[in-house]
Design goal:
By secondary structure, this protein is an alpha/beta fold. About 45% of the residues lie in helices and about 10% in strands.
């Protein structure tokens, strides 16, 4: 089980009241919500391995070089060295170090790699896995990793983590008319304002799906631009032709990396906290006794 950790703690932050605070008044709603997410996932799915994948760089420079608008609207402050600072709610940012400390105290593997997003870590781990993989994320971009043959699916939280949409190839075909790799092509064609991806003007989700159905993949669509007998409308042909520079670089931006140089780590899900005294100390410090106990019980069971 691979967790898109930031995606989940953002959901927890907005799903758990900000009245949940530590004894000193520090909001800990995202921490508590994430711990309960993980406890419920462990309880319901019993994974052998569990990895909390982290955004060591939420806006990698190599993606920005290809498409400068990539996540540009979410930059709070540019930095000369290291990742730009992301615009984050004031009461969420201080909770991230607490989340990291708690995961480490429990012995839950936490992996982030400089220069890469959590999506890239997830893609690499998914590719290396020899058994079935459940990817837990609130980000549809990771639908591109769905692969029935490799028993790889996405669990997408609908309401909390108790209601998960199980995304497999059948669901993708019914919803979007594409398979996993086809979803990446669909996403780059239609664009994504939340990620600063412009897409092809005039090509929305339905048109993108029809083009992929007609021509197979992005390469087939590009080939159709130069094929006079293809059934592209004049407007589609013109817009796709004008978008060639974008279409040449967008796949590398949209597709998750599958070859991230990962550090050595143990993904085995612990059956009890690896540092119980530290867990107790953090529970007391941040007023998280209930959430810590629930996660400990889920691990033991």
């Amino acid at each position: 089980m691979l967790l898109d950790t930031a995606s989940l703690y953002y959901r927890a932050y907005f799903g758990v009241p900000d009245s949940v605070k530590a004894p000193d008044g520090t909001p800990v709603n995202a921490v508590r919500g994430l711990l309960d997410f993980i406890g419920r996932l462990v309880q319901d799915h019993r994974p052998d391995d569990l990895v909390a994948c982290m955004d060591a760089d939420w806006r990698p420079h190599w993606r920005v070089e290809l498409i400068p608008s990539y996540k540009a609207h979410r930059v709070a402050e540019e930095t000369a060295s290291g990742p730009d600072l992301e615009e984050t709610p004031d009461t969420l940012a201080p909770q991230v170090p607490i989340i990291e400390a708690v995961l480490d105290a429990f012995g839950i593997a936490r992996v982030g790699v400089a220069g890469y997003e959590a999506d890239d870590v997830i893609g690499t781990l998914s590719t290396r896995a020899s058994g079935p993989v459940d990817i837990v994320t609130g980000d549809r971009d990771l639908y591109q990793l769905v692969d029935d043959a490799r028993r790889r699916r996405v669990l997408y939280p609908l309401k909390g983590v108790g209601s998960l949409q199980v995304t497999d190839e059948a669901w993708l075909r019914e919803k979007y008319g594409v398979d996993g790799p086809g979803y990446a092509d669909l996403a780059l064609l239609r664009g994504d304002p939340s990620d600063g991806l412009p897409g092809v003007p005039g090509v929305g989700e339905k048109t993108a799906a029809k083009l992929l159905d007609a021509y197979g993949d992005l390469a087939g669509i590009i080939a159709a631009i130069d094929e006079p007998k293809s059934k592209l409308t004049p407007t589609q042909r013109r817009r796709l032709d004008e978008s060639r520079p974008y279409l040449a670089v967008a796949p590398k931006v949209v597709q998750v990396a599958l070859d991230v140089p990962l550090p050595a780590f143990d993904p085995t899900l612990p059956h009890q906290p690896s540092q119980p005294e530290l867990v107790d100390a953090l529970a007391h410090r941040w007023g998280l006794g209930g959430a810590m106990s629930r996660l400990s019980s889920a691990l033991r069971s």
